[in-house]
Specification:
- Pfam families: cNMP_binding (PF00027), HTH_Crp_2 (PF13545).
- GO terms for molecular function: DNA binding.
- Keywords: DNA-binding, Transcription, Transcription regulation.
- The chain is of the alpha+beta class.
- It has two domains: 137 residues, Jelly Rolls, CATH 2.60.120.10; 97 residues, Winged helix-like DNA-binding domain superfamily/Winged helix DNA-binding domain (Arc Repressor Mutant, subunit A, Orthogonal Bundle).
- It is built from eight helices and eight strands; from the N terminus they run ααβββββαααβααββα.
- The strands form two sheets. Strands 1, 2, 3, 4 and 5 form a five-stranded antiparallel sheet that branches.
- Helix 5 packs across helix 7 and helix 6 crosses helix 7.
């Protein structure tokens, strides 16, 4: 199996079963590997894309910039995600994709994806499901932004990313990589840097989580998920194990 397509296959198999022929079809897709530096953009708002971007390693964020210069992070993407899959059918990008920390992506030409999906209706359904789950995550985040205070928003983000990272095998000792700066966290939850700093101190003081050295440590899953009012059902994962995660107590 190509190391570049391994995350994609794992992600697709979290949503549905793949036959050996379907795995081979995914593995055979031509990918152009590209390493990204922190903050480097891979797709620009307003551009007309010809490729989709598969996250292979690291994290990307989807964001939009308002006319006054304000940046709003719309979503965070982990290994296995194709955050611009909608580019197959929409003419231009309505957001920018950029790396959080260092990352690696695989660029797949639209024509190559469409050819694979044309030959395999089941793969087409799984790619469609991936796009629908991405939309479900966006709807969940709209609900969080409208219904939670900043404390709950950050708790929800931490819980969601924990589950998505666990699916991809990226959680180690109740922690996962999250090299977001406090400025970027503020752009995600709609809070000032000062407020983000206070929230992180309170979450750490309440022994719920700690964000340190580019990693987020879950210290008390039950307490954190209660603050977040978090239910992972909207992630539509095939394995029911992820609906009832019980991470061991952290430090």
């Amino acid at each position: 199996m190509s190391s570049l397509t391994t995350p994609l296959i794992r992600k697709l198999e979290s949503l549905g079963r793949l036959s050996s022929d379907e795995r081979e079809s995914v593995e055979a897709m031509p990918l152009l590997e590209k390493a990204l530096m922190p903050g480097e953009q891979i797709a620009l708002e307003g551009n007309v894309p010809s490729h989709c971007c598969l996250v292979v390693e690291g994290l990307l964020r989807r964001y939009s910039t308002l006319s006054n210069g304000t940046v709003q992070t719309l979503s965070i993407h982990v290994a296995g995600d194709i955050p611009d899959l909608q580019g197959l059918h929409l003419r231009s990008m309505d957001h920018t994709l950029a790396s959080i920390g260092r990352s690696k992506v695989g660029l797949i030409a639209h024509r190559d994806i469409l050819e694979v999906l044309r030959k395999s209706p089941r793969l087409a359904n799984l790619f469609w499901r991936e796009s629908l789950v991405d939309a479900a995550v966006a709807r969940a985040w709209v609900k969080v932004l409208g219904g939670h205070d900043a404390f709950g928003k950050l708790a929800h983000l931490a819980c969601e990313l924990y589950v998505r990272m666990e699916v991809m095998g990226l959680v180690r000792k109740n922690s996962y990589p999250l090299p977001l700066t406090q400025v970027q966290l503020g752009e995600t939850i709609g809070a000032s840097v000062v407020h983000v700093n206070r929230i992180l101190k309170k979450l750490r003081g309440d022994r719920l989580l700690e964000h340190k050295n580019g990693r987020l440590v879950i210290m008390n899953w039950d307490g954190l998920s209660e603050v977040a009012d978090f239910d992972p059902a909207y992630l539509n994962l095939r394995d029911p194990h992820y609906l009832n995660l019980k991470p061991a107590a952290g430090r």
